[in-house]
Amino acid sequence: MLNPRRHVLRLRSVLGSLICALLVAMMATTQPARAECPLESQTPVYDIGFEFLRDLLISTKSELEQFFDININEFCLDEEEYGAYYDMEFGNLVLGDSFLLEKANPPGNVNNVIAIIAHETAHAFQHKHGLLNMLVEQNPHRVKCIELHADFLTGGYMRWRAQDFDINHIKLTTMFYRLGDRVIESDSHHGLGPERYVTFLQGFNTVAGDVITLSSMGIAYVSQADCDE
Ligand SMILES: [Zn+2]
Description:
The chain is of the alpha+beta class.
């Protein structure tokens, strides 16, 4: 004869085991041991054999996370990427091998590389605070406002870094000038050389108590730049 109470208890224990198994399966699939670089062509900077470069990139990531008060999942070098970008899907920073070498050359231009990484981290900051949409809404036809705002934040970061390191901001402004493009009609237009130059410099010359204030000052500055023209 079936004991109804026992049956319920047994059912509960079976359900409990099933739920436990499901939780274990979910933990196994949703909690990787560490963040990863998703593409075959990418390598986490932690795996770089050159100690100087590895330590530089890891410490830069850490400093940027502190300054921007954000978390970067993984920092990846990509042998098939020419430029650099922030991967919103994975929360990763990606830097092209050849781009890294080009910007670090001649030796001694290490701050150029750091400024490039800072610019991409500024995009992570914009993403976290919903500024990508806001800046686009202000000027719906161009990404230029977003890019100039990132240049402004980069200037603020390099000023912050200059408290502890010897930074030649003339070299940096020269690089931003050269990063400018003239494809004004394109939706991917990042800004003319002189615009990127003065925006970076304005950020460098701005002293703000925290990154949120710096960002607000950057938005006010960029909004004067007629980004949609
Ligand atoms: Zn950018």
